[in-house]
Amino acid sequence: MSIARDLNTPDPEWNDIILPPTDLESNEPPMETYPHLLQMLLLLKCIDWWWRDRDDYFAAGNLTIYYSPEKRKSEDCRGPDFFVVLGTSPKPRKSWIVWEEGGKYPNMIVELLSKTTAAIDKGLKKQLYQDIFRTPEYFWFDPETLEFAGFSLISGQYQPIQPNTQGWFWSQQLQLFLGIHHDQLRFFTASGQLVPIPEETALIAEQEKQRADKLAAKLRELGIDPDSL
Predict the structure, then answer these.
(1) Same structural domain, 164 and 226
(2) What pTM, to 2 d.p., does this model score?
(3) Residue 118: helix, strand or coil by DSSP?
C-alpha cells in the first residue's frame, strides 16, 4: 500500500541521485475540444489571479510531467489537463521534470473527461496519481456532460470527497471549493464566493462605480453634496 508522503519534504529517492540537467519539452496532444481548452484556460486564469501576490506555487495545464529519468514517453510521462504544485517557484517551465524539482509531484490534479479519455482518466491515470505521484487530491470534470468527482488520498488510497449542499468539493490543498458554475468548473472561497478572473473583477469594479455615480447624482439632485457625507 502506498503511504502519502509529507508534501513539504522532497521524495527521498531523489536526494542522493545526481542527474545531468535536461531540456525536456512538453509532449502533449491538443485539448480534445474547444470547450476543454476554454475550461483549462479558465482554471489557470482563476488560480493565477486569485494567487497573484503569491510566489510559492506553479500551476499549468496540458503540460507533460516527466517522472522517470529513463524518459520512456509512453509510460513515464503524463500531462494532466490542470495541476498545481505548492512550495515551488512560479517560473515558466517547458515541462515539469520531477527529478529536477526536488522530487515534487502535483498537490492537486484536474482531468477534463471526454469520450476518448474518460476510461484512462478514471483508470490508468487515477491509479498513477494515487500510487506513483501520490497526489493528495484528484478531480475530474466533463465539460460536455458536467460529470464531476473529487478524491482525496487517505492512507495511500483515493477516497471520494463528500460534496457540500451545493455539490462543491473542498480542496484542502488549495483551500478553495471546486464547483460547477454556468456549466463550467470554477473555484469558490471557503465562504462561498466565486473566485473571479480579471475580466470579472474589472466588471464588478465598473458596476460598483456606476452605482456610486448614480447615487452621487441623486444626492446632488436633492441638494446634498456627496463629498460631504
Answers:
(1) no
(2) 0.78
(3) helix
